[in-house]
Amino acid sequence: MEIRPRSFHARRLWVLSIAFLLILLGPLANYYFQIDLIQGWYQSLGIGNFWFVSPLEGLESILVAKQLYLPALIAMLAPVVLALLLGSVFCSWICPISFFSELLDWTRRKISGRRWLKDRLLLSRRLLWYALLGELFFSMILGAPLFVFVSPPGLVGREIMTLIFFHTLALEGVIILLVLGMNLVTRRFYCRYFCPLGATLNLIGSRRRVTVSMDHDRCIACGLCDRSCPLGLSPANGMAESLYCWNCGECVDVCQSDALFFQWRQGSKKVQKGKPNQRLKQTAAPDEH
Asked: Where do the domains of the chain lie?
């Protein structure tokens, strides 16, 4: 089944804004009105009696404690199911780092007049898996969930809480500035190469039901989809169906011939239309490994 609405970018900005407001309104409501309906942030978020725990933080806790904790497993269920169905959409549609990255992109476009930034520093995508393995290894060595303390999305929530309750900012906020600053060198640099949470969600969503697919018979080889991808993937060469894609929909929006579209896969079946464009296949993204 094909899904072809336009302006996924606008829809994604709305969802990112609402998701950011969720972690902003929680501390505000608690501080000014003593309402604790929303607690925590996206590492561990509570809405009333319902709690959601990031799969990576839950896995860290299990490895550190060396035992299973049923409430944590239940709290991980919703994010895991979301990733199984839609892939790592948390990264592109919910994560506060993506929210600030979009604001930074908007500001850069207004100043430079350039629609897309050229990626100046390209690394091996294998770094993403090394980051995940290293993070889990050091968490077990240190006996503490490392990513809980240095996670950029989590730091956004903690900085908001520190600002509201103590009217100051913590030093750890420098990590957020570094992550966002690297976006000016390579789009979503941290997300591409170093985010262990993104790597975890990519693995879970590797067989996701919703993917960006291509009708190669419609493709006019304009290259806009490759230039639009914030992760530097090449949708024209099928990389939107790889586990690195986070289903943001940017390539679908810019496709002038409607060759790209979201598709709901029934089991292992998916639509195969036409053959890959050979000229584009020869110009695959240079950092793909």
From this structure: 2-203, 210-281
State how far the Cα of 175 lies from the Cα of 75, in Å rounded to an integer. Answer: 27
CB 236 within 8 A of CB 280: yes
Residue found under tokens 């009217």: 167
Distance CA 34, CA 195 (A): 34
Q: What is the dihedral of CA 138, 139, 142, 143, to 10 degrees?
A: -150
Question: CA–CA separation, 111 vs 81, rounded Å?
Answer: 40
Whether domain 210-281 has CATH 3.30.70.20: yes
Average pLDDT (96-110) is 96
Pairing of strands 44-47, 260-264: unpaired
- E strand intervals along the chain: 2-3, 38-41, 44-47, 50-53, 210-214, 260-264
Tell me the CB-side half-sphere exposure of residue 209, using CA atoms within 13 A: 11
Q: What's the pLDDT tens digit per position in 109-155?
A: 999 999 899 999 999 999 999 999 999 999 989 898 888 888 999 99
